[in-house]
Each structure stands twice: as C-alpha cells, then as structure tokens.
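Hello,

Our lab assistant flagged a job as stuck in the queue for most of the afternoon. It eventually completed. Since we weren't sure the result was trustworthy after the delay, we are filing this so someone can double-check. Below is the sequence as submitted and the structure that was eventually returned. Let us know if re-running is recommended.
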Amino acid sequence: MDDINLRSLQHPELSQAAVASIRRTLDRPNLFLKIPANLKATYQAFQHRDLSRYIRHGAPPLFVLVVGLIALNTYFYRDLLQGDNLRLWLSGSLFVIACTVAGIAAVWSRWGRRHYSAVVTVLSTLVITKLALFPSAFSDATLRVFEAYSCVLAVIVVVLALRLPFRHIIIVALASTSLVFLLDQMVPSYQLNLVNFLYYYVFISVVCLFIAWQMDEREKTEFFQWLLIGYNMRLNAELQEKLKNQANRDSLTQIPNRRAFEETLEKEWERLHRQQQPLSLLFMDIDYFKPFNDTCGHDAGDKCLKQVALSIQASLNRPPDMVARIGGEEFVVLLPDTDAEGGGVIASRIQSQLEQLAIPHPASDVSRLVTLSIGVATIVPDSETKPKSLLKAADAALYDAKAAGRNRVMHAGGSSPAAQ
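-- returned structure --
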C-alpha cells in the first residue's frame, strides 16, 4: 500500500442491507469475523493505514535493536565463541542482519510498501527458521539458551510488532516449523532437540498466535465500526442537506423561498460590487390571483402557482439566474450581470412562456388566461446602497405595472436608486 491514512481513506458506499448485515455480525458472538468480498480491498487499505509513517519511524529502531543485540551478546559471550560456535554465531548473525536490511530496503520502496505483507512474511519465515534451528546446533549450553531467547523475541516481534495480517502470521508459523523439520531430516550432522523446540518455539508461537488472533478480530471489529461511522456520517450529511434544502425551498412550488433569495441577493451584491457589473431584479405578481382562488378553488390555485413557477424557471437560461417565491402569488427573478435592457427581455420572455401555458382565468379583468405584472429594476451595486433598495425599486415598478392596467412590464422610474 502507498501512503494511506485513516483520514484520506474513503468510506465505501454501503447499502442498507450491507449495514444491517454488519450490525448482525457485530451483535452475535463470532470466533472469526468474516470480511465481505466486496470490502476486502478496503479492509486491506484499513490494515495498512499510515504504513509509510510506520515504516519510516519503525524501521530504524528495529535495525538498531537487531544489530545492537547481536553486538552486545557478541561482546558478552566472546569467551564462549570459539571454533564451530564462532562460525555458527557469525554466519547466523550475518544472516539475520542481511534479512533485516533486505526487508527494510524492500519496504522502503513503493513496490515494497505495496507488497509489504508478502515481503515481511518471507523474511520473517527465514529469520525464525534460523533462530529455531540454532539452539540445537550450539555445543555450549549458554549459547543454546541465548539463541532460544532470541527465537522467542523474534516470534514476539513478528506477531506483535510487524503488523502482519493474521493469515500471514499463520503462514510464518507453519512455514518455519516445516522448514525446521525438513532441515532436521536433510542435514545428517544436525539433530533437533524436540523438547527444547516445543518449549522455546512451539509454546511461545501458540501463545503469540492466540494474541494475534485477538488483535486481528479486534481490528476487524474496528473496521466494521469505522464503516458504520462512515455510513452514519453520510446519512447525517444527507439529512443536513435535505433540511437545508427544505429550509431554502418553497414547500409548494419547490423553487427557492424568500430566505434563499435574500441570501443569494447578498452574495451577488457583494460579488457584483467588486466587479462593478449590473444586477437586475424582476418582481412579479399573478394578476387577480385572489379572485382566481375564490372562483376555481384552492387546489386549482396551488396548481396554478406550481405551473407559473415552472414556467418562470423554464424562461431562465443561465445557471446564476434565480427564481424564488417570496409571497402568496409573488415571485422574484434575480439576474446577475444583466442590464436593464436584458432584464426587460427576460421579463417579456417570462410573459410569453406563461401565455403559452394558456391557464384559464375566468375571474381576470385583463385576460381570459393567467397573466403576470412585472416590475424591473437594475443597479450597479455600490457601497452607499443596500440590496433591499433594489427590491424596493422593483416592487415600486410592479406597483406601476398594476396601476397601468396589469399584464405588462414596467421599469423602475428615474428617481429610483435602482434606475439604470
């Protein structure tokens, strides 16, 4: 694995069925937790999280520990290291140092990190095999005891410190045991002390395997809990987004409401103030909507509002343009980077789009169809005026449109602070 840490590791998308299965797995007692096939790659990444940092900080102390122990014991047992014992000691020590250096050099590379478990498994098997063989090879009892302690230490380091998956620890134990018995049969001059081997290697390996099994099951449990945390975080994010949308959406027409409009107006005002570009606002009202409700009923009125909202939205072509419902039958359209002429074009397009819908209006005094009166105001934002002044100017233009007979577009007068 390359540089992976728990923060950068992405939570996978889980279905409700997968989450229910994980929860059932955690609720019932299991000797061996099973990782689903579709999550094995994620679990491997989870196991090797922060692997580069672990190698970078752990490899130098491991090398110093190995070389330091060998050097110290060579010094302490120098009187016993004579003849065959010396040759065995030097060859074995050099072999362990070579395996340690080879392992550190391998996992320091990108390739080695990607194949960390395989590299460490092979080299650990070789080192433990050597340390399990040598207690029966030395002629001196003190050296045999020291070598037995070294074997115990190596087993503990491999199982508890090298962060190997449990199945690889099993492979190391079985492979080392097999190699020891194979070499015992193949080398005539060598005779394995089976009692000592069972004591300093097999017994310790069984104890460490039990600990490794518990650590592996705990890591699987942490992985499942991490998955559930990610799933709950995603649900919370979706719920927050949904609540945010509900807070900023009109419940009937599903277009932005007054709150969303005011927030967007503030943002666009600041942006266009910096860029010194025009901002246009259309304020519109459905003509004679109350008589429409009284005549056709509230259900028909709600349907009419939805149709008008969709019609206005369909008239807008640019992503920054925004339509919002700010009152009963009142709508606004925000048009960034649009001058007064462009605002008038959009207003006329909205009226034409609504006319094509041909919504009957039996109670209107200006048309047999539902129509809109629209007020248009435009301004280049500056520090002396406020966004509400643009809304007031558009509202005043809408009032002029109604006073002039409705079903028309009127621009803000020259005395308005929003005049072009």
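-- support follow-up --
The delay was a queue issue, not a problem with the job. The result is valid. The beta strands are 279-286, 322-325, 330-336, 372-379, 409-411. The longest helix spans residues 194-248.
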